[in-house]
Fold each of these.
Amino acid sequence: MGVSAAVIAIDAGNSKTDVAVIGTAGSVLASARGDGFQPPVVGLGVAIDALAVTVGRALEEAGVHEVEHVSACLANADLPIEERELEAAVHARGWGRTTEVRNDTFAILRAGLPSGAEALGVAVVCGAGINCVGMRPDGRTARFPAIGRISGDWGGGGGLAEEALWFAARAEDGRGEPTELARVLPAYFGLDSMYALIEALHLRRIDEKRKHEITPVLFAAGAAGDRVALSVIHRQAEEVVAMVTVALGRLDLLDAEAPVLLGGSVLAARHPELNDRITALLADRAPKAVAGVVTAPPVLGAALLGLDHVSAPAESHLRLRTHYDA
């Protein structure tokens, strides 16, 4: 069967995968949602097999077998070598005539740019982890390995939770300064002390996955004025702005009116203690940067990158964005 659609857009994060089949005029022919994409955990073959199930459902709903281009923005595509390996694995499935794999942070960046805007700017994702990418219309990009502490990263929801536990534990046993975190963290889990919480986490009476629930408790303590909680939150702001200013500098955009797009669950929550601090720091270090929070779904960004690749007209981009804005 010949090509019947322009793009398969894939946004595959650690927790969920969204797939959309996009027509040549920018219409969404079908969409599907699947589980998270974690090749380091399950292996590349198993991860691609699971992705194929979600893509297959979308293609079946759209009534097509292949498209012109596959635009896949994938979690765990942190290094160029990983992008190349994943691109080869995705392309081998025969879903499209051409395939491009990018790190999923590029989807946030492209989704956050206004309709008609050129592909220029920097995006930071602060969700479970933290990452930052930037791009220019001429194809230049800026990025970081973003694979944790070994690549110099700090923070994200997981990192913030670990830091909150660290300060709370030391406050209770006397090694650190007092903080309300020593009370509110165990109380959140129905326990009466940090010792009890440490024991419950260590012995897995509390599922390790529930650690992400600690991050909102940290922000609540900061909003209530706890000095230690605020210090952790403000350090996260510093880390975000450090990544942004380095990326802007690499792209020669520090003195330009470039968009700085903030995405991921931590930044999208718009905690004033974090987001206002980021805005203030950017005003000092990159005064022409225009910061904003991305609310559009990342699969839109993957789809727009796909339409960019096939040189779709502006009307197609607008129709696609209108669908997701509805």
Note: Residues 87 and 254 are 32 Å apart (CA to CA).
Amino acid sequence: MSQLRLYNTNGGVTEVTPRLAEAEADVQRLVEANMEALLGVRFLASEYSTGPVHAGRIDSLGIDANGAPVVVEYKRGTDPGVINQGLFYLSWLVDHRGEFEHLVRDRLGATAAAQVLWSGPRLICVAGDYTRYDLHAVREHRRSIDLVRYRYFGTDLIGLETLTAATGRPAPGRREQHTTQAVRGARERIAELAAAADEVLLGLGDGITKVQRKKYCAYQRLRNFASICPPQRAKVHVYLSLDPTEVDLVPDFTRDVTGLGHHGTGDLEVRLRTEKDLERAQDLFRASYATA
């Protein structure tokens, strides 16, 4: 955000000066009213009380597309205590899983409550700016933390910039045992293709978080931009957060799965069978990464 300059080109070129909010509550209200669009998180509660013993209030509670609980903390400007405060509340949340699941059940139903991903709770901080010590602390921490910087432009524009993200790495899964060399060879080739797709997605840029769920692996840049399902016998399914109506669909390579049940997140399905498929999918990968 500090490197981005915005200009109004209507009747000339005039720079739109960035500014902070008048009050922290202004940012909170805007984000809570549009949390899924801005952060990729479904809003659950505002100013959530942690009870008389803990004696605190969580600015916002939500749940992301992978089912991970999310604590959102806001600061108008730069506050060196925002990360520690958020971690304090995140720790409370992990210790009160039943209470959070009850909240999810009330807001989103029993199915969502049963699929809460407690292995990856997240903290999102939204503030005017951060210190270099904040950025370093996030990279060293074992928790999933996103630092998001905001700026208002004029009266009706807001910009969000993800400065850094950190997450623990999932443990590798067990390898399947195979009975014949032919089957082993075919599955190894598909497994290598899935690993290559994983490497491409993680290499698209900084601040990418990999989230392992039982039936898919999500790639997140504040919000999901891609997910990979466990490789099938002959292909790998990748789902991207792109509008299929804006993509030239290719039979047996890309498919519109809007409204169709599938594992993972995203409305554009990409089928990978060969390294050539992976190569021609990379423009789509980059486009989806850019949207996040």
Note: DSSP finds nine helices and 15 strands in the chain.
